[in-house]
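Lab channel / #folding
Pinned by the channel admin:
"Please post every new chain as: sequence first, then the structure tokens as a reply. Keep commentary short and put observations after the output so the thread stays searchable."

First post following the new format, from NK:
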Amino acid sequence: MYNADGTQLVDMPEKIWLASLCIGLAAIADFLDGFAARLLKATSPIGKQLDSLADIVSFGVAPGMIIYQFLRMSFMKQVDGVDASLLWMLPALFIPCASAYRLARFNLDDSEQYGFTGVPTPAVGLLIASFPLIYWNSNNATIVSLLLNKWVLYAIILIVSYCMVSRMPLMAFKFKDFSVKNNLPKLILIIIAAVAAIFLQWLAVPIIFIFYIVLSLAFKNQTT
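Reply from TO:
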């Protein structure tokens, strides 16, 4: 299989691009279930726990499996890739583990209403869900090569896992009011997201993720 510029692609196993679709649908459901619960005033402690269990699967286990498959593809490029030890793939488990820790901490913290402590798991899930779509649709051989570089993948695993369990303040997309001053970082991110989506397509997702963190830290007084 070849990319648009003639670069040979490693076949993506088990159609893992379908995982990207499922994670995207899960993100929509995750937004709507909370909205519906508040609208119907049907919130409960057990509902909060069940929501977190679903999030671990959707935004922890599923993204971890995507990274696992990319690691497999990375090793398949090597001459002895078939004989690569399973131990090389195990770092992919860091993502569901970090996701579980992040969600457990979130359930115990009642202060995360207008801001988050650590990157939310859906953000990481959507970031990793974009990788198969970028891989299939990018015409840039460098980007494709980076996604099949095991050291880049290991770095991504460490970075996103740290971001989830960290204590850095990050903004939530909940509005206390509709003034520009109090919502400036959110408005800037929306503009960046719109422009990036138009010009970069699926590659916009990692760009948005990076700017989400940068803007949150730059305007950290507004994330709490």
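NK: The chain has eight helices and two strands.
TO: also worth noting, The first helix runs from residue 17 to 40.
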